[in-house]
Amino acid sequence: MSFKKVFLLSCILGANSVATSVYASEIPPFGYPAYETRSIHANSNNKDYELYIQLPKSYWDTKTAYPLIIVNDTSWGFPITNGAMALMGGNVVKEAIVVGVSYSKGDDRTISRTRDYTPTYSPEESNGHSSAARKASGHAKEYTAFLADQVIPLLKNSYRVDANNKILVGHSFSGLLGCYILVNRPEIFDHYIIGSPSLWYDNKVIFEMEKRYAEKNKSLSAHAMIYADQNDSSLNNKQMADDVLAFEKVLRSRNYAGLDLQVEIIKGENHHSVFPGLLSRGLMAAIPLKN
Fold first, then answer.
1. pTM higher than 0.85, yes or no?
2. How far apart are CA 29 and CA 23, in angstroms?
């Protein structure tokens, strides 16, 4: 190879090297934002969990108290919520602390979520998970106590949390959990983002729980955003949208003082696709950047 060709090749390679270096310095490689993991033992059910805690990017540069978002079903709920807030926080919604509560350590995912997110024991539930999961059902009360008595106090003591801006996010079984908390202990959270809740569970027992709450209470101070997809008929034709609309009708009929209720049936989605869309709607309703 002639000296001229070697020289030209060296120039080309050198230019490519410089271009690559500049590009890499301007656009860093993808990496999941760092989050903190804390182990916690639940006194109410004697189970161990992990908390995945994502602080907003401005956290260390401010003295601000931030809204607190708690999300269940963390295998998918935490990364989706975390990603949504990375894009939306500070742009269309307030920045917030996002916390995922894991499934219980050492337990099958379906057993953990059935035990913790369902309000009653229903071992023969035809639309539930496995037989083992159904036999573990009915311990939402204990799990709710864990959230209220341990998780939230720990977070408030450890981070700058806006005590009047606590948000629960749940979908499907964890949406059922959200409805359970809403009509049993609504004061735990200020905002409820509830997606396609499994209101069919145990012969729609959540409706009976709401009725018992209404018999003793005239107020229900919470901002509840309940969503469902229009197209889901997978659960033996038990339409989640119809159940959500029925639940809305009951809640509005009570004229609860303090209840800010928003309900939407989202078109063109099904049970497995609707969560990202309803999450963004709920976040914009709960913590808009400008009130």
1. yes
2. 10
